[in-house]
């Protein structure tokens, strides 16, 4: 098959959509006002920020006043967790998260554990799902906050957020969910979910890097992590990144249009063809994550008797961009904490492969991957120390 370039690492970052870039460009120079200034240039920038805030709120079924902009998804996670705990010190010193969270959450919990909080880490099953029963058993009278991700970034499993949140609400416990991988790709109705805080990031939905947002339920108070000019309702000081916010708003509108055009159904179908094709054509491979409760664009597998790093390098040489897990830890030689929590042994976890599709991924792209990957694996197994026999 003829060489082609196929980008399948959309969970790490998405390309900025043309409409998003076009919307952003004027706010770098032509419409350069500070949204906190009262003159015409400032009012123009503030109107653009307000419009973007409204579009992002609409995407998740919230009100514009519920959205606070941050520098990225990790900053939003930190603001949610630390800000909520510091604002409600009388709630207790026990906090709960899962074993498969993004490092922005799990490392924050570890830091809190060294600074006066008692941390409970919930296990996941073999498909990377958090059990409502395990959460119910973990909550205590002094539990202050629970944070469980909406969907896993490494294997794509979607958690039962409504059930988990309902348990927290019954017990009067704050509930945060990191929805960075989910927002803009599956429908979220924050107003009707028992969720107190929800994290989003623009660059996971065809927007720019360096801008995130936090949904905060009405009436919930947070202590700011950054003090200064009192921007973002006094919760996140610092001059707003207007071009990025404008891009985030346009990306949210794009996500709504893609949903209306049936993109979720299309991409789910070719994702399933990719997963089925890999298992059929690559001996000793298997799907990781839940087959049904799964992000529509997310395909993840493990290939036994192989090193994932070699697989990625050879796929890259063939023009295919993929990953073995979280982009934030791609420089680590340790196996994925997610796969280990799912019960995989170290050797198998080292053979993980994440292929995440996008709106421009075609059937021909999938054909190319299914033609290339088996040959890559066969070549590597001939060289592998795990070679059978």
Strand content bin: 5-15%
Q: Give Rg in angstroms.
A: 21 Å
In which order are the strands of the major sheet placed? 2-8-7-6-5-3-4
CATH topology of the largest domain: Aspartate Aminotransferase, domain 2
- Helical amount: 25-40%
* Basic shape: globular
Give the domain tally: 2
The structural class is alpha/beta
Helix segment tally = 12
Give the H and E element order: EHHEHEHEHEHEEEHHEEHEHHEH
> How many strands, what sense, and barrel or not for the largest sheet?
7 strands, mixed
- The low-confidence runs, each spanning 5 or more residues with pLDDT under 50, are none
Task: Report mean pLDDT, rounded to a whole number.
Answer: 96
Distance between the termini: 32 Å
Q: Please write the CATH class name of the largest domain.
A: Alpha Beta
- Reported CATH architecture of the largest domain: 3-Layer(aba) Sandwich
CATH 4th-level superfamily of the largest domain: Type I PLP-dependent aspartate aminotransferase-like (Major domain)
Number of strands: 12
Describe the 3D structure.
The chain is α/β, with parallel strands linked by helices. It folds into two domains: about 5-15 and about 260-385, Aspartate Aminotransferase, domain 1, CATH 3.90.1150.10; about 20-260, Type I PLP-dependent aspartate aminotransferase-like (Major domain) (Aspartate Aminotransferase, domain 2). The chain contains twelve helices and twelve strands. The chain has helices at about 20-25, 40-60, 75-85, 105-115, 130-140, 160-170, 240-260, 265-280, 310-315, 335-340, 345-350, 365-385, and strands at about 5, 65-70, 95-100, 120, 145, 175-180, 195-200, 210-215, 285, 300-305, 320, 350-355. The strands form three sheets. It has a seven-stranded mixed beta sheet, sandwiched between helices. Strands 9-10-12 form a three-stranded antiparallel beta sheet. Strands 1-11 form a two-stranded parallel ribbon. Helix 1 packs antiparallel against helix 7 and helix 2 (about 40-60) packs parallel to helix 7. The longest helix is centred in the C-terminal third of the chain and has 21 residues, at about 365-385. It is globular, with a radius of gyration of 21 Å. It starts with 5 loop residues before the first strand and ends in a 6-residue tail after the last helix. The model has no long low-confidence stretch (mean pLDDT about 95).
């Amino acid at each position: 098959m003829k060489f082609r370039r196929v980008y399948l690492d959309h969970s790490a970052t998405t390309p900025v959509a043309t409409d998003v870039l076009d919307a952003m460009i004027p706010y770098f120079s032509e419409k350069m006002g500070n949204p906190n200034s009262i003159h015409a240039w400032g009012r123009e920038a503030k109107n653009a920020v307000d419009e973007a805030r409204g579009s992002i709120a609409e995407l998740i079924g919230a009100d514009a006043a519920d959205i606070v902009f941050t520098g990225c998804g990790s900053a939003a996670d930190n603001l949610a967790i630390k800000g909520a705990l510091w604002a409600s010190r009388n709630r207790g010193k026990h906090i709960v998260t899962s074993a498969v969270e993004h490092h922005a959450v799990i490392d924050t919990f570890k830091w809190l554990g060294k600074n006066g909080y008692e941390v409970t880490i919930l296990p996941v099953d073999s498909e990377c799902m958090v059990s409502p029963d395990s959460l119910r058993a973990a909550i205590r009278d002094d539990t202050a906050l629970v944070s469980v991700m909406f969907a896993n970034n490494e294997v794509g499993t979607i958690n039962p957020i409504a059930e988990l949140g309902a348990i927290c609400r019954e017990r009067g416990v704050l509930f945060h969910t990191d929805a960075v991988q989910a927002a803009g790709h599956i429908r979220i109705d924050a107003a009707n979910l028992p969720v107190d805080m929800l994290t989003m990031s623009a660059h996971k939905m065809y927007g720019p890097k360096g801008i995130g947002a936090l949904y905060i339920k009405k009436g919930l108070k947070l202590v700011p992590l950054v003090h200064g000019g009192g921007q973002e309702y006094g919760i996140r000081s610092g001059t707003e990144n207007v071009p990025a916010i404008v891009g985030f708003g346009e990306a949210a509108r794009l996500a709504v249009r893609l949903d209306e055009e049936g993109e979720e159904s299309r991409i789910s179908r070719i994702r399933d063809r990719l997963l089925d094709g890999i298992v059929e054509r690559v001996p000793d491979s298997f799907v990781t994550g839940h087959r049904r409760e799964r992000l529509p664009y997310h395909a993840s597998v493990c290939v036994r008797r192989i090193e994932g790093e070699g697989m990625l390098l050879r796929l890259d040489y063939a023009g295919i961009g993929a990953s073995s897990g979280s982009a934030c830890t791609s420089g680590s030689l340790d196996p994925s904490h997610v796969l280990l929590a799912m019960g995989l042994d170290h050797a198998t976890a080292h053979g993980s492969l994440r292929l995440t599709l996008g709106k421009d991924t075609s059937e021909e792209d999938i054909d190319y991957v299914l033609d290339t990957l088996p040959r890559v694996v066969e070549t590597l197994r001939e060289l592998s120390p795990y070679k059978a026999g």
